[in-house]
TrEMBL record:
Keywords, sorted A to Z: DNA-binding, Transcription, Transcription regulation
Record GO terms (molecular function): DNA binding; DNA-binding transcription factor activity
Occurrences of domain HTH iclR-type (ranges): 12-71
Protein name: IclR family transcriptional regulator
GO biological process: negative regulation of DNA-templated transcription
């Protein structure tokens, strides 16, 4: 996913380059200077300088010609994870819902206009996915993302679309504002959102919002699985009720956390 777009904000380009190098190493699961250069588009000498600096600070390790992220990032990840109230509040409800449905359950929240997966629980018949805890996602093409957008004010939704656009991932992805806002209105009326093969072909999901009493949006919880199974094997009301029950339990957990 590309670096977040800015609206005239001043950026320190050296920091941006360092972060691009780190992201390249993360996505490649380790790489040499040449591979990082190809992934970032930076000059090889620049990549080499940034990697040397990161190694000197203990943020990357070098094995032969290959660099990878160091274990130092574990402390960052653990801190961020446990500092997010939704992580603990959603843990048991997400696991219970996954056990009951046998499907994959994803709990997410919004930050900087993107969704971030907070909990990912697999059921006994979940499909394989590269979406896991920490994965950033566009909001307009996921059930959890759309149900969050539906409960944001219009100004915030417009700002998110301005920053990130509405890129198409499949033929079913919503790619224009008018259609998106029409669907968000329907989602508010229904209380749930659907993703019907809008991000990955053949994969659908149903999502519900996680909010407090004044309708502040904390995040969303969604059940994901093969489109034919979610749309043909499940009773719509049964799956909706199970999803809303899990969302309500998370809301109560947040209230008393």
């Amino acid at each position: 996913m590309e670096t977040q777009r800015t609206s005239g904000d001043r950026r320190i380009e050296a920091v941006v380059k360092t972060l691009d190098v780190l992201e390249a190493l993360w996505r490649a699961e380790g790489a040499g200077v040449t591979a990082v250069t190809e992934r970032t588009g930076l000059a090889k000498s620049t990549v080499h300088a940034h990697l040397r600096t990161l190694r000197s600070k203990g943020y990357v390790v070098q094995e032969g010609d290959e660099y990878r992220l160091s274990l130092r990032f574990l402390s960052f990840g653990e801190y961020v994870k446990h500092a997010e109230p939704l992580y603990e509040a959603a843990a048991t409800p997400s696991a219970d819902l996954s056990d009951r449905t046998g499907e994959r359950v994803l709990c997410s929240t919004e930050q900087h206009g993107l969704g971030t997966i907070i909990q990912a629980r697999d059921g006994n018949r979940s499909v394989t996915s590269d979406i896991d805890v920490g994965t950033p996602t566009y909001l307009h093409c996921s059930a959890g993302g759309k149900v969050m957008l539906a409960h944001f004010d219009d100004e915030k939704v417009e700002r998110i679309v301005d920053d990130w656009g509405l890129p198409a991932f499949t033929e079913e992805t919503i790619t224009d504002r008018e259609t998106l806002f029409e669907e968000l209105e329907s989602i508010r009326d229904a209380g749930i959102a659907y993703n019907r093969s809008e991000y990955v072909p053949g994969i659908s999901a149903i999502g519900a919002p996680i909010m407090d009493n004044d309708e502040t949006v904390y995040g969303a919880i969604a059940v994901s699985g093969p489109q034919h199974r979610l749309e043909n094997e499940w009773d719509v009301d049964e799956l909706r009720n199970q999803l809303l029950s899990a969302a309500n339990t998370i809301e109560v957990n947040l209230m008393f956390s």
